[in-house]
Amino acid sequence: MATIDRYYFHVCTDGARRRGVDVDHLLRAAGIAPAQLHDPTWRGDVDAMARLVRSIWRALGDEYMGYTAHAMPLGAFAFACEVALAGPSVADGLRRAIRFYNLASQDIHTVAHDSHDRLAIAVRFAEPQRDPTRYFSEFWLIIWHRLACWLAGETVPMLEARFDYPRPDGYFEEFKYLFPCPRVFDADDRAIAMDAHALRAPVRRSRDELAEMLRDAPLAMMSIPASDRTLSRKVRLMLAQDPALGADGVAQALTFHPDTLRRRLRSEGSSLTTIRENVRRDAATRALAGTGRSVEAIAAALGYAEPRSFTRAFHAWTGMSPSRYRARHGVGQGVELSA
C-alpha cells in the first residue's frame, strides 16, 4: 500500500486545530499515535490518511475540513459523485460536479477550461489565508484528478500542474509524486491539466461501484497514480516500451491466454485496443513536437504498416495531420517544461 509523509498528516489537521478540535483525539481515532507525527522517519499508509480525513469530516461536520469560512455539509462529495456519474463522458461528469460545488459554496471557485488536447481545472479560494500551507488547495486539485481516474476506470494522464506560489522545497519529494507531471511554480493560477482525449471516454462506473467507493471515501481518491497496480497500467507500460507489440506478445509476456487478457482488461473498463491507441497517440504527439524524426519513421516505430494509416489515425486523435501538428506544436513553438 502507498505511504504518505508525516508532513501531510500534520497539515491536514490544521483546519480542525484552528476550530478548537482535539487533534490528538482525531489522530488516535484514525489509528495514528500522535507521537508518530514527530518522528522524521515515519510514514503513514493511505488507509490511515483516509481514516483521518473522515474523522475530521465528522468532527467538524465539514467536508472542507475547516479551511473555508463556511462548512461544506457531509454528503456533498457523495452527491457530487452521483451527479458526475450521470455524465455521458468523464469530462462532462467533472463539469457537472464542478457546477454543483460552485452552486453549493462560494468559498472555493472551481473552473474547467477546455482546449483541444487538454482540460484544465483551476481553483481559487475566496479566503486563501485560511489555508496558509496550501494543503487543502492541493488536496482539492488532486481530488479532481482522482475523480477523473475513477470515472474513467483507468489513470488519466496529468499533463501539467501550475501553482501561484514558489516550489515547496520542504516537501517537494512527496509533492512531485502527487503531481506526476511537469510543474510550474510562481504561475498566475493554481490548476492542473489532464489529457482531454482520455476524458472524452464514457463514464465506466456503475451505481453499485459508486456505493462501494463511497463506503471507503475518500480512500479511492487518495491513491497515487504511480502506485496503480491494475493490469491496464501494466499493459500500458509494456506498450509504451514497444507500441508495435501484438496482442499475443502482450499476453505471452504477462503469462495470460489472449482471451483471459481481454476479459481481465474488460473487467477494468479497458481494452488492449484502447490502451494501444492511447499509447500511440501520446508517443506520436511527443515525437512530432519534440523530435525531428520523419512521419514515416514515427509511423514505423509505432507499428503502422504504412504512413497513410498512421496519418488517418492521427487525424482522428487530434483533428489535424501530423505535419500540421508539428508546425503548431513542434520545438520552437513553445516552452517545453521538465518534470
Automatic annotation (TrEMBL):
One of its GO terms (molecular function) is DNA-binding transcription factor activity. InterPro entries: AraC-type_N, Homeodomain-like_sf, HTH_AraC. It comes from the Bacteria. Residues 229-328 form the HTH araC/xylS-type domain. Transmembrane segments: none annotated. This is AraC family transcriptional regulator. SUPFAM superfamilies: Homeodomain-like. It holds the Pfam family HTH_18. GO terms for cellular component: cytosol. Keywords: DNA-binding, Transcription, Transcription regulation.
